[in-house]
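Quick one, T. Sequence first:
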Amino acid sequence: MAWFSERRVPSTRCRRHLERLGVVHAMGTLARVCAALLLTTMAGAQAPTAQVTDRLWVGPMPFAGPRDLRPDFFDTITNPAAWPTVLSHTDVFKSYLMVLPADPVPGKTAPELPDTQMAELASFFRDRSIRVAFEVGGLRMGPDKPQRGQWGKQVAEGEFRHLKRWLDAGGSIDYLTTDHAVMANLGHRVAEGTDCRLTLAEVLEELGDYFAEMTRRIPGVRVGCIESLGFFHVAGPDGSDYPRTVPTLPVWRFEEYFDLLLATLRRRGLTLDHFHIDFGYEGVAYDGRRLGRDGLDFGRVLGVERFVQSRGVRAGVIVNAFHDQTVEQPDPAVASREAQERTLAFLSGYAAAGGRAEHLVLQTWQPFPDRTGPEDEPGTVLHLDKRLLTSEAMRVLLPDLAPRR
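Structure tokens:
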């Protein structure tokens, strides 16, 4: 969940995740390559990554609790008849690191995904040539400042223990995306009144070590980041300033953070494949209210999207929404319908505003819709995804969208 409100400390999403070259010819080629690299460096950009067909990412919420899987998740996802439209368009299936642990949740005797089910899931995606992405923590810390130069490696080692279960089951890991690895340790702790005792540069050095360790352990994996935009000051596409959503926070400019992140990775010979924008319906509604506009404002989202792309990194927008959270005990059918309509409004507004992300990420972590599928049953996550795929906004954003299989 994007951090947009002065009153939400920390975000629901972050709390949950605290508990992702003949010689002459070569000489000429080398000169041209060096010149191109120099121009790229001068512009502050990294060399663009190779393009693959990965525009549409699908990530239905798997959890009913902090780590308990929804009862219908496995049976629905492994049943192609339950989501034929969405499945046929899915380039990347995204899930969370915490579906993988072998350790049972409290009160249970077996892991949420036993080895047999994990192997079946891995085979399901492999047989259909669907790439797999996992959202990971990247950096998480306890009350004490970790040992500098060791923290990133230690977190990578701990998280790889879970990812290895998937690899051992025959699964691929094509993408790793960290979830608020920076601001979970800076922004949230400051907002909570605690001192993380780390500078932005220090956190990014540890994140660089984390990515270096993960790319060593998982050859070929593409790495990316998510950070809630509400922690940053952002320059909109028209040059207007979108300030942090909590005035008591320090001023962190997104552009400075991102250039420092890329420089940190370059020193390790790494590139950032993607940055996924976490600022859903509630975020753009907040900016709309703040600016006194009637409706949703996508200036912050588009400002980040275009800056990221100017640095040679692919941008993605996460498409989701909560239900009306002012209702304490909502009717599940009503709440699921509210979440669906708000998510559709977000995608429609993003398309109308001129969004052009390389990745559209249909990912939910919200409690509603509270059932996985099937896609033809109203009130399910996959029904929402089907509605998004068949919407006019999707035709604008992905005019050449067609079934892959």
